[in-house]
Specification:
130 residues, mainly beta, 1 helix, 8 strands, disordered N terminus, disordered C terminus
């Protein structure tokens, strides 16, 4: 196990629902108001470590489908009940893993502040949501 592993936290992830191809007058996709919500066990890692994570406290093997990783150490400060937005950006080939870009947004001094970007592997399989 890597010495860089951090504690596992729970984060709430929201994803805009399918728009069925609708667009506004400017041609931008129209997002439905409803969102799908998933809860992730978040362990921040570097990309190089994502494939070899060892086991968690319960003895379960930890693989990339349960991991959020980032190359930015500031993004390791994921806290319980943090709200993250989730956008699918992969796979690049049909047999590849689902890859998601996650943007963390926090309220700081009355302003919404975007935190460093995180990446989630195979989030649908882990959360059971499609």
């Amino acid at each position: 196990m890597s010495h860089r592993q951090r504690d596992t936290h729970t984060a709430t992830v929201t994803r805009p629902s399918d728009t069925d191809g609708e667009s506004d007058f400017m041609g931008a996709p129209v997002q439905d108001d409803s969102v799908e919500v998933a809860t992730l066990s978040v362990r921040v890692q570097s990309p190089a470590e994502a494939g070899n994570l060892g086991t968690d406290a319960a003895g379960e093997v930890v693989t990339a489908d349960k991991v959020v990783w980032t190359s930015n150490p500031e993004a390791a400060q994921v806290q319980v009940d943090d709200h993250l937005t989730l956008d699918r950006v992969g796979p690049t080939d049909p047999d590849g893993e689902d890859v998601y870009l996650v943007q963390q947004v926090r309220e700081q001094f009355g302003r919404r502040v975007s935190q460093p970007e995180l990446w989630v592997f195979d989030c649908d399989r882990y959360t059971g949501q499609r």
